[in-house]
Amino acid sequence: MTIKEHDFVEIDYTGKLADGTVFDTTVESIAKENKLPSTKFGPATVCVGEKQLLPGLDDALAGKEIKKEYTVTLPTENAFGKKDIKKLKIVPMSTFKENDLRPQPGLQINVDGEMGTVTRVSGGRVIVNFNHPLAGREVIYTFTVHKQVTDTKEQLIAFLNTTFQMDPSKMSVEVKEDIAEIKLPTQLPPQFTDAVGQKLAELTKLKKVTFIS
Question: Fold for domain 1-82+134-150?
Fold first, then answer.
């Protein structure tokens, strides 16, 4: 069986640099072996073609076979992007003082929802690099698709988990015949949930997906 665009699949993957350094994985044993930061590991459920993975990795899934291991090399434009000089920004020292932070090279900060790394501190000015740490780097991914996910409720929960970054246990998803009702722990703007509901109905082939409060 080969994978098609808009299939929901369960996948394990590991990302490496050209020198073999592992920077990303869903496999707990590989994470421990390479001393990656502690987080929740396990296969990811994604919808093929919906850019829920890096663009190059997502593009590589269509046409592949289930339970076979593949390795793909992603050029910078299909991975974390090229380095952009416009993403080097000057952040006032006052921003750090407001958050009780002492800026120093290597410090990672969140400014208006965007993650950056301090590269230089000079007087009252701090230069922050908002490029991804792996921008400009070619990366290599090894992946295995374990199975196709066909249960509608599981598809909905997986998509919502990826889209909203919410704990699935805090969502309520009910599917009756061709209609799904979803309750999230956080209230979101109707125009946003309407668009997501329409997309979910299209992907899961339901008549209607609504968000209730």
Answer: Chitinase A; domain 3 (3.10.50)
